[in-house]
Amino acid sequence: MKLVIENLTKKYKNKVALDNVSLSMENGIYALLGPNGAGKTTLIYSIIGLITYQQGSIKYYDDQNMEMESLYEILGYLPQYPSFYKNFSVYEMLLYIATLKGLKKNIIKERISEVLHEVNLWDDKNMKIKALSGGMKQRLGIAQAIINHPRILIVDEPTAGLDPKERIRFRDVIKNISLNTIVIFATHIVSDVELIATNIILLKSGKVILDEKRETVFQYIENKIWEIEDVKENTDELLTKYPVLEAYWIEDKVHIKIISDEKPAAFAIQIKPRLEDLYMYYFGDVQ
């Protein structure tokens, strides 16, 4: 499976929401990161056909590299704020979605059982949706997105409302699906994708400013992340002089993490960068 986006441009009156965006995706997890207003939702809506765009193209190719005309039977989508018929039960909602997505009648029951177990909702399958907690509704949203074995799965802030245990469960589900699926994972929670993403895409003001394999993405901030431990009086100057990624106290010492091209102090220790550091480098006004 392959998704190819070329020179995509979308404008709203005087605002450019997407500015000449080009991406190529195959099976794997693509972390789509960026601040509010970066264009993530507009890009997602363009891919799934909810909005039209003024320029560019979006094409899908099957495993034989043949262009596909229809996406909907192989698409799974979890919006940021999923909405359901509140008087349906969990099971009825999934039965409805499975029918809409064209699953064969002889496999629907088995597939509903599979996804309910995957998202830990099997024991709650007969509950009315109006009685579900926010986290349970989010898990139902995940279930409906994967029920048709999608080849392209798009999830927008999928872990919102999930407790830590369920977030780990969800990441495991996504990681397994991505072996045969293109997964676009839009999120503000960088830690959710740091360990499972195969590719990192940074979107800023409608432009792709970074599209890189996770293994090589840190080259842009390599040797720039430093940690300093000292008493507060000696670090005041550093806090005003350098961009600060993190600062916290341990007993009577201040620990600060900063970005600097050069060693900022004799007692500074260079540390391995994390995805959150990369995010802050591009979006935290620390350049």
Alpha carbon gyration radius: 22 Å
| Residues in β-strands, percent | 25-35%
What's the CATH C level of the largest domain?
Answer: Alpha Beta
CATH topology of the largest domain, which one? Rossmann fold
The overall pLDDT average reads: 91
Largest sheet: 6 strands, mixed
Q: Please, how many domains?
A: 2
- Superfamily at the CATH H level of the largest domain? P-loop containing nucleotide triphosphate hydrolases
Query: What is the CATH-assigned architecture of the largest domain?
Result: 3-Layer(aba) Sandwich
Helix content: 25-40%
Lateral strand order in the biggest sheet: 5-6-7-3-8-9
Kindly state the number of beta strands: 13
Termini separation comes to: 37 Å
Helix/strand-derived category reads: alpha/beta
Element-level helix/strand string: EEEHEEHHHEHEHEEEHEEEH
Q: Which stretches are poorly predicted, pLDDT < 50 over at least 5 residues? A: none
Number of helices: 8
* Multimeric state: single chain
Shape: globular
Domain ABC transporter: 3-230
Protein name: ATP-binding cassette domain-containing protein
GO molecular function, one term: ATP binding
Keywords: ATP-binding, Nucleotide-binding, Transport
Topology of helices and strands:
Layout (H helix, E strand, L loop, with lengths): L1 E11 L2 E12 L1 E6 L6 H9 L6 E7 L13 E4 L11 H11 L4 H14 L15 H13 L5 E5 L7 H14 L4 E5 L4 H4 L4 E6 L2 E7 L11 E6 L1 H10 L2 E7 L2 E7 L9 E2 L4 H9 L4
Organism: Amedibacillus hominis
GO molecular function: ATP binding
Keywords: ATP-binding, Nucleotide-binding, Transport
